[in-house]
Design a protein that fits this description.
CATH superfamily: NAD(P)-binding Rossmann-like Domain
Number of domains: 1
CATH class: Alpha Beta
CATH architecture: 3-Layer(aba) Sandwich
Number of strands: 9
Order of helices and strands: HEHEHEHEHEHEEHEHEHH
Largest sheet: 7 strands, parallel
Strand order of the largest sheet: 3-2-1-4-5-6-9
Shape: globular
Low-confidence stretches: 253-264
Structural class: alpha/beta
Bound molecules: NADP nicotinamide-adenine-dinucleotide phosphate
Number of helices: 10
Mean pLDDT: 91
Helix content: 40-55%
């Protein structure tokens, strides 16, 4: 490829790109001709998969709850990217009363502080060029008072919607992606037992990434992929939040594996 055509290709930076929804974004963006900057805690895994995705793929190994690692990725965002996808995330198998506070702080930092820092690092050059944008991965749970996880995702939705309004006049689009149950490593990594979730509620990570990119390109501040998730969000909006909080507290998921000290 000539230098000129390489320069013309837009660059996308995706966090959490070694697995699940982030990996699906990376595959799709590579097919669309983007140059990729892939970020994950697990740099080794990315270095194995990156060459098969695109000849122009930069890998950054960074633990995005560690300040110095986040600063390195912020720096790369400041250099200029056309699309930032904040996808890295994780959950806990137990409620916050049974989870060590450091683990809660790490999750909160990854889902909120890191998303904030990378978004604010990426936006100025997008605004200057009047092009590009950000997709922040929230969750359907962000509409429901269910846990510290849902609280962090509510923050992502709220922040992204306000950023969308502020950046739209500069032709920069910010979208909060709100997936529901998606087949990835997420639940196994957290040790969550999902066996009771009916099959029709599950979506495929590639379908989620495809819907998100379509909605981002049409300037939507909110992307809820799948009719099932749209129905869940609509129902949530019609139901008083105290009713939802009580129902979710009663139906709290049991961990697949228990840790010493966790209540059963
Ligand atoms: N799957 C679902 O049902 C679902 C539903 C709603 C929302 N979401 C959201 O979707 C996003 C992607 O999740 P997923 O389902 O694709 O899960 P996944 O398959 O577990 O992928 C998550 C990725 O994030 C990376 N990551 C985790 N902690 C990190 C850290 N501290 N620094 C850098 N990277 C880190 C993981 O790296 P390691 O492999 O090194 O851990 C992994 O590559 C998350 O924000 C999640 O909250 C998922």
């Amino acid at each position: 490829m000539s230098d000129a055509s390489s320069q013309a290709r837009p660059t996308a930076l995706v966090t959490g790109a070694a697995a699940g929804i982030g990996a699906a974004f990376a595959r799709r963006l590579a097919r669309e001709g983007y140059r990729l900057v892939l970020v994950d805690r697990n740099g080794g895994r990315l270095r194995e998969t990156a060459p098969s995705l695109s000849a122009e793929c930069e890998v950054i190994a960074a633990d995005l709850v560690v300040d110095a690692d986040v600063a390195r990725v912020e720096e790369r965002c400041r250099e200029g990217v056309e699309l930032l996808v904040n996808c890295a995330g994780f959950g806990h198998p137990t409620g916050f009363l049974a989870t060590p506070v450091q683990a809660e702080v790490a999750m909160s930092r990854l889902h909120t502080e890191t998303v904030l820092r990378l978004t604010l690092a990426a936006l100025p050059s997008m605004i200057e060029r009047r092009r590009g944008g950000v997709i922040n991965i929230a969750s359907v749970l962000g509409f429901f008072p269910s846990s510290t996880y849902s609280a962090t995702k509510a923050w992502v939705i709220n922040f992204s919607q306000s950023a969308a309004v502020k950046t739209r006049p500069h032709r920069v689009a910010v979208t909060a992606l709100c997936p529901g149950f998606t087949r990835t490593e997420f639940h196994d990594s957290a040790g969550m037992n999902m066996s009771k979730i009916p099959g029709f509620l599950w979506l495929d990570a590639d379908a989620v990434a495809r819907a998100a990119l379509r909605d981002w390109r049409s300037g939507k501040a909110l992307s809820v992929p799948g009719w099932q998730n749209k129905a869940i969000v609509a129902l949530g909006r019609l139901t008083p939040s105290w009713v939802i909080a009580r129902l979710l507290a009663r139906s709290g998921r049991r961990p697949l594996v228990s840790r010493a000290g966790d209540p059963q």
